[in-house]
């Protein structure tokens, strides 16, 4: 069922429930109100009659007590004195006067007109109605409210007066009420539903249009397009802005993915071509034994490079998924740094670059030792790789109150300011041809090995340890890479270590 229909139906159900609840509560409160009014009215009638009887009694006007011989010689019942009778006849509603023997001595005309059964039912119920108590409702003649009042005075033979009113009006719903409920409420409901349907129309039209636009954009080829932001969809401007931001991110990650796939294929294609050529050369009949060995050695080297590259790509892919294969334990950085420094000395010597460790500190971090070694070595090999012979590379470890900083400074080729934002991007190299040539001649341990992945993986390692990797550089002057790592809780006493 379409959402617009569902929402309109929900409004219909909610409104009907509200109207029904309103009708019932209106009806109940009106009923209570009328009931109270009628009770008061009946009580006033009873009090009035009781007073009239009392005054009559004081004037000696109560009952005609002499037994009268009626037709057939039967004893007629006692009746009210004529003067009192006339006074009470002025009361238009139900009125009963009972004497001290609980015999009914007077019934008003309204009662006398009732049919025999109803009248008997009322008379039989009299004993149940307490004097000066609340009104009682009898289910007679559509509902009768009765109130009893005692007649005061010691010499009075008349004991109680019971006044009543027809209470059908309190129980039955009046015409106006029925008209309201059965005609006006459906009108209100119809009006509200029409309004809801019309009101929901615009946003739903807009939503449908946005859905169509998003479907057209996300078909994969139109990610450069954006949803239009105009006044006609002002209410949905937040949604449109959020969707546009999402499409933005989608476009970025699609582009990144495409670039990454293209770069990865390209990086793998080159060693594969070299590998193939080497193998072909080794297999060729005209190749001498020594040439064959050289070709196979190169093939081995290329396959090792490819294995490195694939390993790095896998690590990055796992990192992207959040699956870090890190085994954190307390790692003392000073020995790790010394180890890296010794490797750097050998690499530096080959490249004609002087490597120095001017300062180091004792510090323990929670980390994965092989990964931290890979991170430090990546930076140090890069520094040596991108520094001309005769240059210098300084390595240092500084301890701060809550973190430790590992720094690598070189006097190499540097990075242009415009390139700095991209250095940590995957496969990014300032100059592909030059980087690759240098990498091929000076390939050492560590990440990408001239493929532009080394800094990306280094940054991931730093982040995975809760740290950061930053760079400052000047083209032609040199670069400074800084790794900051949070210190572990248990630290050795602060000491400066002579390298
Ligand atoms: P690569 O394997 O190409 O060295 P990296 O990710 O380690 O890949 O480095 C990316 C690029 O950043 C390098 O190709 C190089 O252009 C630049 N770069 C990295 N370190 C330095 C440095 N110390 N001095 C100058 N350029 C550097």
Please provide a written account of the structure.
By secondary structure, the chain is α+β, with helices and mostly antiparallel strands. It has three domains: 3-172, Beta-Lactamase (2-Layer Sandwich), CATH 3.30.450.20; 217-324, Helix Hairpins (Orthogonal Bundle); 327-497, Heat Shock Protein 90, CATH 3.30.565. The chain is 53% helix and 17% strand. The chain has twelve helices and 15 strands. It has helices spanning 3-58, 82-89, 109-112, 116-125, 168-171, 175-217, 237-283, 289-321, 333-351, 369-385, 432-442, 454-464; strands at residues 63-64, 79-80, 94-99, 104-107, 136-138, 144-150, 158-166, 329-332, 354-361, 364-367, 392-399, 403-410, 468-474, 478-486, 496-497. The strands form four sheets. It has a six-stranded mixed β-sheet. A hairpin with a 5-residue loop joins strand 5 (136-138) and strand 6 (144-150). The protein starts with a helix and ends with a strand. 27% of the residues are buried. Residues 382-383, 386, 410, 412-415, 423, 428-430, 435, 439, 448-456, 479 line the site of adenosine-5'-diphosphate.
Secondary-structure-derived class: alpha+beta
- CATH names the topology of the largest domain as Heat Shock Protein 90
Give the averaged pLDDT, no decimals.
Answer: 84
Number of domains: 3
> Radius of gyration in whole Å, from Cα?
52 Å
The kinds of small molecule bound in this structure are:
adenosine-5'-diphosphate
What is the level-2 CATH architecture name of the largest domain?
A: 2-Layer Sandwich
State the CATH class of the largest domain.
Alpha Beta
CATH superfamily annotation of the largest domain: Histidine kinase-like ATPase, C-terminal domain
Strand order of the largest sheet: 13-14-12-11-9-15
Low-confidence stretches: 67-76, 433-449
Instruction: Tell me the major beta sheet.
Output: 6 strands, mixed
**Bulk shape:** rod-shaped
The beta-strand count equals 15
N- and C-termini, Cα separation: 76 Å
Listing every helix as H and every strand as E from the N terminus to the C terminus, the arrangement reads HEEHEEHHEEEHHHHEHEEHEEHHEEE
User: Which band does the percent of strand residues land in?
Assistant: 15-25%
Count of DSSP helices? 12
